[in-house]
Queue: 2 jobs
Job 1
Amino acid sequence: MNMDYDVIVIGSGIAGTLAAINAAKTKKVAVVRKGYGATALSSGAFDIAGRSGKRGRPFKGFTNLTEAIGNILENEQYHPYSILSMVFSGDRFSEFSSMIKTIGDQFFSDLASAGVRYEGSWVNNIIIPNQHGTFKVTSFCQSSMTSGNLTKLMGRSVLFLGFEKTAIHNKTRASFLSDILTNYGLVSFKDIIYTNLDFNSHGIKCNQHNFISLAGMMDNPEHAKKILSIIKQTLNGMEYDHAFLPPIMGISRYSDVSKMFGDYFGERVSEFLAPPSSAPGLRLQYALDKLLVQRGVKIIDGQVSSENSSDIIKTISISRKDGSSVSLSADSFVLATGKFISNGIVNNKVWHEAVFGLPVFIGTHAVKDSFPMNYLTDDPFDEQVLFSIGVKVDDSLRPVDADGRVVYKNLYAAGSVLSGYNYIYDKTGMGTAMVTGAKAGIFSAG
Ligand SMILES: Cc1cc2nc3c(=O)[nH]c(=O)nc-3n(C[C@H](O)[C@H](O)[C@H](O)COP(=O)(O)OP(=O)(O)OC[C@H]3O[C@@H](n4cnc5c(N)ncnc54)[C@H](O)[C@@H]3O)c2cc1C
């Protein structure tokens, strides 16, 4: 039978994009997506690994990245990192670390060519403040943020530029950040100060409390120049070593806008992280879309469903927004549909995977019941195991059933649709999506 594509990838977040661009090195590939998912909503920072010690409390984070990967391979047998490392016969830790680094370095170089440069380290995690007046330990983030790595600001005067009513911008939050960093023994500042930005009184009509719409305004070169000049005026004469700005340095013109700031302020000004929806997540997603186009991957908009009765998938159905539908065939498929936010994993009477109806697991436990509270506790500092629910896979990333049998011979799964890890607790969100996506693309291309 003549197939429409060699490989069809379902989903275009980090996992789907990595799968598609890797498969597209040798195959004809399409990505089908019903929209944007967690990747576009995320902070845009890449957590590769960041927890030390065994599961349970007290939570020990902030470790160096290599130690945290070693911890996962040693203690987390169902984590996708551990599953992918099973194929190595020698030193699993060295071989897996080298594999994820090779995939990551290539991917960050691809992202830079698509206009979003990432910086960070494969050895030590970095610490970036966020809008809530707390901080995030992560491994790589967009280049307009890295000079704000708090571990480098010991003993310095730190200034937060914000807007009245946004969380970081008040005395309590600013001192809260300072206190928790000191209490964790991470960083002590000489001073922590804050000041107001006010664009409206300078004739720029905008919603100052909505960082993403401000970032969108910066995509207009005239607005960007004006906003930069207001920031210069605000900072003029102020005493500080490093100033933090909300993430407003553009979305689709991020590369130009961040360069404009860098040319003027050097490393003295950086962006802090913001919760969803944040400009950095969208910048990342737009760069992924660019990469797909650059690599000749066809992007098809629509929601995928499948009614398959054999152990090989031949076709999928795609429903479009205009009500029409189409069937497409391929030799192999990659499922990269995400978890709850993207509806990759759903709960209607029972928990299951949404496109192929695959069973879902927490560890070895096949989850059949539907009550979410069975997998959540009311202590926010506990690990919430619901977040590790997902599809279980073999070491070629093919979904398996409760007896460990491969369900479909030509289906591979990647990213947050997988079980065995909890991105919040393990701090491996983007790292897992990236490495499983790349490997699923390679496996699907044969
Ligand atoms: C709010 C939030 C903040 C986060 N912050 C961080 C962070 O700071 N650092 C970090 O490392 N991780 C973070 N994470 C985790 C990280 O974002 C995810 O692990 C990662 O983005 C998952 O990527 P993915 O490609 O697996 O899924 P997604 O990005 O969710 O992509 C799923 C794709 O599948 C598509 N899809 C789903 N069902 C169908 C269907 N039936 N038909 C067609 N298409 C379909 C969706 O439209 C979407 O394109 C965060 C997650 C969330 C939710």
Job 2
Amino acid sequence: MSLVEQQIVDLEMWLGKKIGIAYKTAIAINEPGGNSEEWINLIAYYKLKEITKEERTKSVLATGLKRGAPVSEVYEVFNSIVKSASNKFKKIKRPMDDNDEIKWEKLRDLIDRIHGDTLKSYKKLVVPKRSMFSFAKEAAENSEGVKSFNNDEGFVMCCSGCGAPRLKTTDFECDFCGGSFANGE
Ligand SMILES: [Zn+2]
């Protein structure tokens, strides 16, 4: 493996792993818009600010979150990871070799779209599809706007190579490293 190819693979694995940890930690929170020790540590690790309790409740009511960390926090965490990946990528010179160049371009495109893709996938899992009417009714019945759901919904299929989450149920190969999906643990 050439040096540049190794750098590309290393960054793919790094990105998949970081996104995987953040994704799993966020989704593992049962209380909608809630928190966990692991999540608080992650927020601190990326030097982000936790949102206030009021903001949490507001966010849950506004989005209809059914479990997991608030979307706005998850957005910021993914953003930090992608920014770091982008900085690391800038240090990898565009390869002269055609095969390496294809891999380099693939990683560049992945970094470009992965924030949007992971957030979209996260939202799909934590924000239920339902009519505005039923949502408003439920919110009215539940003044706290907070409700816990079944644990099973926090399950995410992860890549056996890098640990990245499976973003679409139709994905056979990991978006990050091309590995296969296995049970997350
Ligand atoms: Zn992978």
